[in-house]
Design brief:
4 helices, alpha+beta, 14% strand, 99 residues
């Protein structure tokens, strides 16, 4: 039996990069053990990682990876979100609607 995976549009909330290192982050920055303190800050309405990947940048509205152009296809960057646990995506959409 095949099930269809629901994929929502990427809103550049940083969820994927903060939850686990990609192969690039793990290799270039020795990131494997750095993802131990990720939590949702309700005041900031975003995920906070006290030790994020150095390639992940936040411009005040969106997250982006400095390696995105080079590895976009390999890492499926911007391909969309298939995580039902991504509260970060929902919070960003709510902030955008209320602005």
């Amino acid at each position: 039996m095949r099930t269809t995976l629901h994929v929502s549009t990427c809103v550049r909330c940083g969820y994927c990069c903060m939850k686990a290192p990609c192969a690039i982050g793990a290799t270039k920055y020795s990131m494997i053990s750095r993802y131990t303190n990720v939590h949702f800050d309700s005041k900031q309405m975003k995920l906070v990682n006290d030790n994020p990947c150095p390639a992940l940048k936040f411009d005040g509205e969106h997250y982006s990876c400095i390696h995105a152009e080079e590895y976009r296809e390999e890492l499926a960057i911007g391909a969309g979100c298939s995580s039902g646990l991504n509260s970060q995506r929902s919070a960003k959409i709510k902030r955008t609607i209320h602005e």
